[in-house]
Amino acid sequence: MTAAAALLVAVALDLACGEPPAAVHPVVWMGSMIQALKRRAPRSGRAAELVFGAVMALAVPCLFAALGAGLAALIAPHPLVGLTLSGLLLKPTFALRALRDAAFGVRDALAAGDLPAARFALRSLCSRDPSELDEPALVAASVESVAENASDSFVAPLFYFALFGLPGALFYRAVNTLDAMVGYRGRYEYLGKASARLDDALNFVPARITALLLLAAGWLRGADARRGLAVLLRDGGRTESPNAGRPMAAMAGLLRVELEKRGHYRLGDPIEPLRRGLIDEACRIVALASLLFAAIAAAALAAGSTMGEGLLR
User: Fold this and answer.
1) DSSP type of residue 129
2) How far apart are CA 44 and CA 197, in angstroms?
3) What is the pLDDT of residues 251-281, one digit of tens each?
4) What residues contact residue 114 under an 8 Å CB cut-off, 6+ apart?
5) CA 53 to CA 97: how far, in whole Å?
6) Stretch 37-46: mean pLDDT, rounded?
7) Angstrom distances, CA of residue 207 to CA of 167, 279, 309
8) Would you list the domain boundaries of the chain?
9) Bridge partners of residue 258, in order along the sequence
10) For residues 44 and 46, what is the distance between their CA atoms, to the nearest angstrom?
11) Shortest CA distance to 144 belongs to which of 249, 220, 39?
């Protein structure tokens, strides 16, 4: 029952307080370690970069998972203290409130008619170059990012916490951070290839769970769930990423809009215009889907704990 309660404590902390200070944020520590390793990476030679990147892709997540396992072992004998500390340690591995706040930054700038500020705010949501994006394109990019990050920033970390405890959540978060920092084409293509592939593998199941949760949440909110399912099945595999397109396509169908990244993909159908109010609705659907998953994960952990206690009797 402690793991289930810790999950609920962590979610409550996220909704109430948001992110902890950078000085005590494990993801900031991960980023600092990755940055230090990048400075020591080979500057030439694909094979050397691939090998160094593969070692980095395993070493950083394993280190943080081991730290998580050690902390979990230390607090296990103290249930009440353990519950509080487990919630505090789990919280930094996901960021639902921060995701909403980043999206609202774009929305608020658009409401003020300040396109430069909206373009700047989009940088907190995705790595796309926003310099040429107009208001509809900024709305589309925000909706896409909110949907995609529902998996990366919430469902996936809690999925691995439910399976493997705090070490699993920290391992996932480190892999995802590596992918964000080096797992893309360009200067770090070979250095980040192992991180990118590992991130793809770890997100395969959570991304598809997220898409289904978005459909369920959209249905509960009265969105077009039938179209959401149809667009998911039709367009979910159209992105370069094997995972990102699933939640984005589901959201496009739910909102009855077309989400496009020029030269890369086009998801959904342009039935409704891309207006800034859709950012609010996308955030509401993601919040409901996330809370549904938190409840499911907590229930599964509680049931597993009860079953384990019964077997030990």
Assistant:
1) -
2) 21
3) 999 999 999 988 899 999 999 999 999 999 9
4) none
5) 32
6) 89
7) 20, 20, 32
8) 2-298
9) 268
10) 7
11) 249
